[in-house]
Each structure stands twice: as C-alpha cells, then as structure tokens.
C-alpha cells in the first residue's frame, strides 16, 4: 500500500469515525489541535489502523505522532516491517 493510499484511507477513517470534513485533513494537520481529536479518539483511530495493517500497534509506536503525515509515515513503516 502506497503512502497516498494510506493517506486516502486515513482521511476516510477521520470522516467516518469523527465526522471531520475531508478538506480539513491535510498532511500538516495536527491531530489534537487542528482536528480536535482527544485521547479516546486516538485509541479508536489506532484500532482502525490495526485493522488496516493487520498488526497490533503498541501505544509507544504512536507516542510521537502529532500530525496526519506522522500517522501516514508510521502506518507505512508498519506495513513494510
């Protein structure tokens, strides 16, 4: 799965799970400040990403994630590993 495919899927998840308008989602958008996610939302998103990757994602793997681009990069890293 390419970075662009992961990005499109992430945008879809953000819209479906949290009703975030797609035009608000861009690679530099900060998850908590710009998209108004909270820690419970972040857990829900990780669960969805686990389904996408087919792998368990440890919380420490997402500790430094702050932006949509960070999520895309981390998911791509997991898909390659």
Q: Helix and strand layout, with pairings?
A:
Blueprint: H1 3-18, H2 39-53, H3 68-80
Helix pairs in contact: 1-2, 1-3
Quick rundown:
The chain has 81 residues and is mainly α.
Helix-strand pattern? HHH
Count of extended strands: 0
Reported CATH architecture: Orthogonal Bundle
Mean pLDDT, to the nearest integer, reads 92
- Describe the largest sheet: none
Number of domains: 1
- What global shape is seen? globular
The rounded Rg comes to 11 Å
Could you tell me the strand content as a percent range? under 5%
Share of helix among residues? 40-55%
**How far is the first residue's CA from the last residue's CA?**
13 Å
Ranges where pLDDT stays below 50 over 5 or more residues in a row are none
The CATH H-level homologous superfamily: ACP-like
CATH fold-level label: Non-ribosomal Peptide Synthetase Peptidyl Carrier Protein, Chain A
Number of helices: 3
CATH class categorisation: Mainly Alpha
- How would you classify the helix and strand content by structural class? mainly alpha
What does this structure look like?
The chain has about 80 residues and is mostly helical. The protein has one domain: ACP-like (Non-ribosomal Peptide Synthetase Peptidyl Carrier Protein, Chain A). It is about 55% helix and about 0% strand. The protein is built from 3 helices and no strands. The relative contact order is 0.20.
């Amino acid at each position: 799965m390419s970075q662009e495919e992961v990005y499109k899927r992430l945008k879809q998840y953000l819209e479906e799970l949290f009703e975030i308008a797609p035009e608000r989602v861009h690679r530099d958008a900060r998850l908590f400040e710009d998209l108004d996610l909270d820690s419970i939302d972040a857990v829900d998103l990780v669960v969805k990403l686990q389904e996408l990757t087919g792998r368990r994602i440890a919380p420490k793997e997402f500790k430094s994630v702050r932006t949509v681009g960070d999520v895309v990069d981390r998911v791509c890293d997991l898909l390659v590993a």
